[in-house]
Amino acid sequence: MAREMEILMANRQRTRRLDRKFIQRLAQEVLTELGVAKVELGLHFVSAKEMARVHEQFMNIPGSTDVITFDHGSNPPASVHGEIFISVQDAIAQAREFKTTWQSEVARYVIHGILHLLGFDDLQPDARKKMKQAENRLLKRMDARFDLRAVGKK
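^ thats the sequence. predicted structure below, dont judge the formating
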């Protein structure tokens, strides 16, 4: 199956250094694992301040959040077309809370956003449980394949 993958990344935060190529490769591996053939994906790494602005403007909810996904016409499972906004500052805070690394949290948010673009939802308890199971399974597979600490540069 021929794959068309365009994964663009914008880093507009200065809290942590990110490895752009590694993050694109991680997203590509997740999408390949999920059998998606056509991909147009934008990954935006933003400050908590910018995330709060996006959260309020598009979801009418004040304050920052870890990840927001915008679907621009995905057709799961054949194609993904969307954008994922990720707050690295929120990843750092969540990592402390859940006793993991910020890099692993960033990888989780990439996976979480991709799952949203594939039709997963986390608003209802049953759907949230199903999404969390898929997220954990994919994170475990990616962690076995890669050193997720490579998300960040030294």
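The domain at 4-151 is CATH 3.40.390.30 (Collagenase (Catalytic Domain)).
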